[in-house]
Amino acid sequence: MTVVGQIDVDNLRANGNTVESTTGDLTLASAGNVVTSEQVDITNTLNVTGQLNADNLRLDGDTLSNTAGNDLDITTTGDVDIQGQLQVGSTAFAVGGVGLPSTAEVEASNLAVAGNAVVDGDLTVRDNLIVTTDVAVPAVVLSSTSKSSAKTSTIASTNVSSPYQIDADGSTPDTADGVKYTICVINSSNQRYMSEILMTYDGTDMQNASAINLTEYAVINPNSLGYAFSADYDAGNGGQIVLSIVGVPASTSVTVKLHKTHLT
């Protein structure tokens, strides 16, 4: 039977290269598979109930897997944005950048990043953090009650005052209970002064401190440099107690390096 033009059978209509349903969905039912060797173009939504196989990729339920047993490669010219939790059973290896929002988490037995890893929120390490090279971060939260940071201040001879604030960067919260400093002062003659300092206060928080208490110990000062340190409240830097150095000669430039750990 040869039909030139449109043909209707029940709700099916064949016209030219188009087969359509005149009402409802178009259902293809077969005792076997529906096989085509040609390209299928879909311009709307494709709903699949069951497995979807494409080359070695299989999408089944909530799982995307490789049926050949190889690695699953995600290649893109941009970043891979993960909005939920990323759980990795073995090794997670990132060559480029991985961007995670502050609400996302990454769980992996091994995490290897060859490029840059950018975390907008906190980075929490529940076990050991092993670093084979340098790590440059403004601050590290060691636990929910401890935070460490490092800073370098250069005091030019024209900027010397008494006292001179060396820790007024707003990184110590107003509610911190105490701060421990490791200090190293290097003058223009490459002479070094080093010590540790403990600082705490009396009061509900730093802003309402009735007394500021400071002690310096473990002093290494072989050249009898006349440096000393004091602490006072600074409302203009986030509301915190800051550390200052005194005894810097007006004709001398010094560099102060400190490592700070505060407890909250």
Structural notes for this entry:
The protein is built from no helices and 20 strands. The protein has three domains: 7-66; 83-136, no CATH class; 146-263, 4-oxalocrotonate tautomerase-like (Immunoglobulin-like, Sandwich). The chain has a six-stranded antiparallel sheet, with no helix packed on it. The protein has a three-stranded antiparallel sheet with strand order 1-2-3, with no helix packed on it. A three-stranded antiparallel sheet has the order 4-5-6, with no helix packed on it. It has strands at residues 7-9, 12-15, 18-21, 51-54, 57-60, 63-66, 80-81, 85-94, 98-100, 105-113, 117-119, 139-143, 146-155, 164-165, 178-187, 192-202, 211-220, 228-234, 240-246, 254-263. With 264 residues, it is mainly beta. 10% of the residues are buried. The protein is rod-shaped and about 110 Å long.
What is this entry, summarized?
Helices cover 0% and strands 46% of the residues. The protein is mostly beta strands and 264 residues long. Strand 16 and strand 17 form a beta hairpin.
Give the helices and strands, then pairings.
Elements: E1 7-9, E2 12-15, E3 18-21, E4 51-54, E5 57-60, E6 63-66, E7 80-81, E8 85-94, E9 98-100, E10 105-113, E11 117-119, E12 139-143, E13 146-155, E14 164-165, E15 178-187, E16 192-202, E17 211-220, E18 228-234, E19 240-246, E20 254-263
